TrEMBL record:
Anthranilate 2 binds at R170. This is Anthranilate phosphoribosyltransferase. Binds 2 magnesium ions per monomer. Residues 6-68 form the Glycosyl transferase family 3 N-terminal domain.
Length: 343
């Protein structure tokens, strides 16, 4: 029997779980625009209050993937997504975007899935535009970009058109809902490996187990204990790792990798242009905190992509990719490739 939106709402009020098939049905109603805005708002708020379960999140992500415009990448070897939930309030430059260039220079294939800044001063789409990248590519051209440059940027609105049905509700509610954590789970290129940053420590164990249910291969979900949705230099980082179907959780520290623990304060930016300057400085091998945090995150991404055998090995590869100039060259390569499709 299919659950009605009213029954689902009652279930959330009673702090009871919505089962997998029921959640699939409800999410399809929302994505098709077949649920009233009032009911959709009530249900996603109810889920947030009772706390979404791993099963509910996995079912919702499954439906979002169903409705996405997919990017076909035939070869999954060393294929990784580098993404954050955002919402960490740290207002740092785009570390995960800088990480993409380094990881690609060191041999990973990166499908970056991102949007404009919501909580941050500059989202991945904003800084890529500031660098001169054409972010507005359809799926076939993103696939060509990955094949040619080792990198592809998927601008979320182009790949998740059904989200327009819930966007006004989310905007008006103005609070975090299940949709804030679905973005990183719904990469349209289906990358089997992932480095995912999250905005809350509880999400480390939740998101890694959602990815386990969704059949991912090698995933590291990270939360810096200073509040960053990245691997942090300013504190220990909580890690949830999925490898060969098994999950383990642990902490890592900058000192484990010969890096100095240092505050992330100097990484704050006010806009996309400041983010661009800091990103290019790191890729130009300019000594400082920006370069070190990009190296640390790129090393972790290279481990997730199975290019490196450990985070420490990944950091060595990342340092070499930056020092050789290959990481910086990747920026120009992506700009050149994407600009040929400028309409």
């Amino acid at each position: 029997m299919t659950i009605t939106p009213q029954e689902a709402l009652q279930r959330t009020i009673e702090h009871r779980e919505i089962f997998h098939d029921e959640m699939l049905h409800l999410m399809r109603l929302i994505m098709r625009g077949d649920m009233s805005p009032v009911m959709a708002a009530a249900i996603i708020t109810g889920l947030r209050v009772k706390k979404e379960t791993i099963g509910e999140i996995a079912a919702a992500a499954t439906v979002m993937r169903e409705f996405a415009h997919h990017v076909e990448v035939p070869d999954n070897a060393h294929f990784v997504d580098i993404v954050g939930t955002g919402g960490d309030g740290s207002h740092t430059f785009n570390i995960s975007t800088a990480t993409m260039f380094v990881a690609a220079a060191a041999g990973a294939k990166v499908a970056k899935h991102g949007n404009r800044g919501v909580s941050s001063k500059s989202g991945s789409a904003d800084v890529l535009e500031a660098l001169g990248v054409n972010i507005d590519l359809p799926p076939e051209q993103v696939a060509a970009s990955i094949a040619e440059t080792g990198m592809g940027f998927m601008f979320a609105p182009n790949h998740h058109p059904a989200m327009k049905n819930i966007a006004p509700v989310r905007r008006e509610l103005g609070v975090r809902t299940i949709f804030n954590i679905l973005g990183p789970l719904t990469n349209p290129a289906g990358a089997p490996n992932q480095l995912m940053g999250v905005f809350h420590p509880d999400l480390v164990g939740i998101q890694v187990r959602v990815m386990q249910r969704l059949g991912a291969s090698h995933v590291l979900v990270v939360y810096g204990k200073d509040g960053m949705d990245e691997v942090s230099l300013g504190a220990a980082t909580l890690v949830g790792e999925l490898v060969d179907g098994d999950v383990r959780e642990y902490e890592i520290h900058p000192e484990d990798f010969g890096l100095q623990m240092v505050s992330n304060r100097t990484l704050k930016v006010e806009n996309a242009d400041e983010s661009r300057v800091m990103l290019l400085g790191a890729l130009d091998n300019k000594p400082g905190v920006a370069r070190e945090i990009v190296t640390l995150n790129a090393g972790t991404a290279l481990y997730a992509a199975n290019v490196a055998t450990s985070i420490a090995h990944g950091i060595e590869l990342a340092r070499e990719a930056i020092a050789s100039g290959r990481a910086r060259a990747k920026v120009d390569e992506l700009v050149r490739f994407t600009q040929q499709f400028k309409r």
